[in-house]
Amino acid sequence: MAIVATTSRFSKIAWPTLAWVVALIFFFPIFYMVLTSFKTDADAVKPEFLFSFTPTLENYANMTENYDYWRFATNSVITSVLATLFALAVGVPCAYAMAFNPSRATKDVLMWMLSTKMLPAAAVLYPMTFLTKNVFGVFDTHFLVILVLCLINLPIVIWMLFTYFKDIPKDIIEAGKMDGLTTWGEVKEILIPLAWGGIVSTALLTFIFCWNEAYWTVRLTTIDAATLSKLIEGNRAPEGLFFGRLSAVSTAAVGPIIVLGWFCQKQLVSGLTFGAVK
Amino acid sequence: MGSIVLDKVQKKFGDVEVIPPLDLEINDGEFVVFVGPSGCGKSTLLRMIAGLEDLTAGKVNIDDNDVTEVSPAKRGLSMVFQSYALYPHMTVRKNIAFPMRMAKVPQDVQDAKIEAAAKSLNLADYLDRKPGQLSGGQRQRVAIGRAIVREPSAFLFDEPLSNLDAALRVGMRLEIMELHTKLKTTMIYVTHDQVEAMTMADKIVVLQAGVIEQVGSPLELYHTPRNKFVAGFIGSPKMNLIEGEEASKHDATTIGIRPEHVSVSTTEGMWKGTVGVAEHLGSDTFIHVHNTGLDTGEGDLFTVRISGDIAVSHGDTVYLTPQMDQLHKFDAQGLRIA
Predict the structure, then answer these.
(1) I want to staple B161 with a disulfide (CB 3.0 to 4.6 A). Which of A181, B6, B93, B169 is the partner?
(2) So what CATH class is B237-330?
């Protein structure tokens, strides 16, 4: 910031311009997707109808009539909410333990947790499919989707909570100990109220990650537990190039999360920067 | 009641022994100050009494009960932290009420105690504010209020005044002393500031590297320090410790003379030197004298404290004469020679 502020007028104009250009480039696909969702499948592929076309709601009508959008949406809400809650239920005590009673292994454990995110998902695709389908019989169940979403997000949840909890002075927790708090009391009376902002950021981000997750939700479900990711995936190819329809489904899938993100911008920024910006 | 007995308590962090086995008795109603340089283990010792730090070995007894394995809250002690450690999300009233709420004290009793504490600590107007809206001194009062309402058998203070500015520190020091006079409860107070130790304590425990160097009343420590460390640590400005030839004359390895026990003359005296810096405080004058030819281990520097003002400045030649009856003698091990 300081560098920008003290340099020439050129950079005063150049940097914002660059920021806008980058922002527009990033935003364009979303804009294009929303636009296409109001075109018929035939118009969608014709370049001459890029901006001038007769808008139609046909795709949206089709989506609720033929594809049962609401069932996929309900599944997305159920699995994302429950996975987020479970991840927090495990993550809060875990991060608490590591932030306030660290051992020599704490740093290594944290690194190990993060390292699990480096595992290519495709590497375990076969065992996951085989085990869930043939051994445990939990393929295409809410339970499985919630479990998987919860587990793949836990490292991030714990890391985020850990950074927030570390900002709380240890003295306050110790004062609580002197005043008669139990371990659960420390979490309930001190930790959660003080780290509330951080916990909310973590929850929001986890919810968004769960909602957007596609690799496992597409591969471990068929119908019963299928989420919106699966619905988009299902509209992709088999019946040909239905860009209008695909765009409508995609818009309806990302819509809720964009609205959520818009209202919680501040919390999300602090979450993504791991509390570095406040 | 609040007598505390430490029985061979020991603390190790990994392989590092912070506190070698140590014994200490604190009587009911005493104001005991743990004093020592940073990292001497005084805070660790306090935290071991509080139960916030596990013991590697030994026992902590409070009122003849072994509390070594008892949780902090059940030891009946209150602690005031250097950082105040108030609950930032609660109002002053809720902060003070917190330990009582935990102990399930009836609401009307809680209210009465809060009122009484707030009145005696001048916090009545601030009960509905959050700690963030208070000054440092007020925050520390809230912390003390939170400690009082529990009616502990002993108060533990961990450098409670270190975060306050100098003027406030003196005021709060008096308030804590008055509190002790009023409550007559045992207080253990940790500080690195020997002035606080001297002014507040009934009994001072001087620590260095986890070892008790001396236990005694402030004046005992001042007049008869058991060894060179205590001699140098207690008193301000520091005692002048002289080695070599001058010490041999008194059959000692080291002799010590406090700055206030030396007289200064511009014409005659026992030792001759040149004034380096003269600090004129009005009531006192501190003169730092160089080139005395005395082996003080600090480049011959010798400090003198004269009551009132004396007209000397940098570069002046002065003569120093110690009061021989105030001379402290130490042997090769640094221990006092009677």
Answers:
(1) B169
(2) mainly beta
Q: Within 10 A of B197 (CB to CB), how many other CB atoms are there? A: 24
Closest CA to A142 of A238, A74, A40, A196: A74
Query: A177: which chain B residues are within 8 Å (Cβ-Cβ)?
Result: 51-52, 71-73
A142 three-state secondary structure? helix
What percentage of chain A has pLDDT greater than the value 70? 92
In chain A, which residues have their Cβ closer than 8 Å to the Cβ of B97?
A: none
Quick check: A180 and B85 CB within 8 A? no
Give Cβ neighbours of residue B139 (< 8 Å, ≥ 6 apart).
Answer: B84, B86, B131
Residue B296 has pLDDT above 60, yes or no: yes
Tell me: do A171 and A133 sit in the same domain.
yes
In chain B, domain spans? 4-228, 237-330
Is A153 found in the same domain as A116? yes
Residues B35-91: pLDDT tens digits?
999 889 999 999 999 999 999 999 999 999 999 999 999 999 999 999 999 999 999
Q: Is the pLDDT of residue A1 over 60?
A: no
ipTM of the complex: 0.85
Would you call B58 helix, strand, or coil by DSSP? strand
A180, B102: Cβ pair inside 8 Å? yes
pLDDT of residue A275: 45
Q: Give the CATH H-level superfamily of domain B4-228.
A: P-loop containing nucleotide triphosphate hydrolases (3.40.50.300)
Average pLDDT, chain A: 86
For residues A122 and A182, membership in a common domain is answered with yes
| Total-model pTM | 0.81
Residues A87 and A218 reside in one and the same domain: yes
Distance (Å, rounded) from C-alpha A54 to C-alpha B323? Answer: 108
Confidence of residue A272 (pLDDT cuts 50, 70, 90): low
* Number of cross-chain residue pairs from A and B with Cβ atoms under 8 Å apart: 55
For the cut 80, the answer to whether the pLDDT of residue A271 exceeds it is: no
B79 has a chain A CB within 8 A of its CB = yes
Question: What is the token pair recorded at B26?
Answer: 């604190």
Given B51, B77, B85, which is nearest A169 (Cβ)? B85
Are A271 and A205 within 8 A, CB to CB? yes
pLDDT at residue A9 tops 90: no
What are the residues facing B285 on neighbouring strands?
B280, B306
As a whole number of angstroms, the distance between CA B129 and CA B266 comes to 60
The dihedral formed by the CA atoms of A221, A227, A231 and A236, expressed in degrees to the nearest 10: -70
Alpha helix ranges (H) inside chain B: 42-50, 92-102, 107-120, 136-148, 166-183, 194-200, 218-223, 228-233, 245-248
A2's CB contacts (< 8 A; 6+ apart) are none
Q: Which of A171, A181, A193 sits opposite B89 (nearest CB)?
A: A193
Whether residue B86 and residue A179 make contact (CB cut-off 8 A), yes or no, is no
Tell me the nearest-neighbour CA distance from B178 into chain A, angstroms.
24
pLDDT in tens, B107-118: 999 999 999 999
Within 8 A of A180 by CB-CB distance, chain B residues are 73-74, 99, 102-103
Domain count, chain A: 2
Query: Would A5 be classed as within a structural domain?
Result: yes
Which residues in chain B touch residue A190, judged by CB atoms under 8 angstroms apart?
A: 87
